[in-house]
Write a structure and sequence with these properties.
With about 200 residues, the chain is an alpha+beta fold. It contains six helices and nine strands; from the N terminus they run H-E-E-H-E-E-H-E-E-E-H-E-E-H-H. Bound molecules: zinc ion.
Length: about 200
């Protein structure tokens, strides 16, 4: 019983984005409290949601070979996925424009010489210098080592003949939650978690 209750359940927010994992024990509590619905699939892999009552009804006829929690009179199939109905954890729309996040976007490597450095050896460079109208934006600020930064000074890329290695862009939003567990604890999670090709073990 306790192994069943410790199984991992995927938690989705109201936008059906994965935000977390929790134990089956916690998931069942949330469903009983009405804070979450169970996400179930039918034979055609379509998703539908259940509150406690409809999940109990569903559990009584769809529990063959599944993990269930039983009481004297009923059985409750352990959910694989739940979707929160009350708590909104909206994704941040943008990654904040900070020194640290620019370093992260650029993998702590100088965008001119390409070498990786410790943060204290790095600086930010305005590709088009501020005194030439360059703005402090994701598109115009790159990570630079101090020697490259000094060499470029307040020159335009063509004046210094120094160009960033890639076109600087705002970083794209990362998923709120991802896991490196492979295989995933439940196949149904695959609908919500991006599988990177390199993470997937191919079988024939
Ligand atoms: Zn450099």
């Amino acid at each position: 019983m306790s192994a069943t209750l410790n199984r991992q359940v995927l938690v989705l927010n109201r936008l059906w984005q994965p935000v977390n994992m929790c134990s089956a024990r916690r998931a069942i509590t949330l469903v009983f409290l009405g804070h979450a619905h169970v996400v179930g699939t039918d034979e055609d892999d379509e998703f539908f949601t259940h509150d406690v009552d409809s999940w109990l009804a569903h559990s009584s006829s769809h529990s063959e070979g599944k993990n269930v929690v039983r009481s004297v009179s009923s059985c409750f199939r352990v959910p694989e996925i739940i979707v929160l109905s009350l708590f909104d954890r909206l994704p941040k729309k943008q990654v904040k424009f900070t020194r640290e996040n620019i370093y992260r976007r650029d993998s702590f490597s100088c965008q001119y010489c390409g070498f990786e450095f410790q943060p204290k050896e790095l600086n930010l460079d305005h590709v088009v210098p501020r005194d030439k109208g360059g703005r402090s934006t994701w598109e115009n600020v790159v990570t630079s080592c101090i020697p490259c930064n000094t060499r470029k000074a307040n020159k335009l890329p063509r004046e210094a003949n120094m160009y960033p290695r890639g076109e600087p862009k705002a970083p794209s939003w990362r998923p709120l939650f991802s896991t490196t567990q492979r295989p995933l604890p439940c196949d149904s999670w695959g609908h919500f978690i991006d599988l990177k090709e390199s993470d997937v073990v191919l079988t024939d």
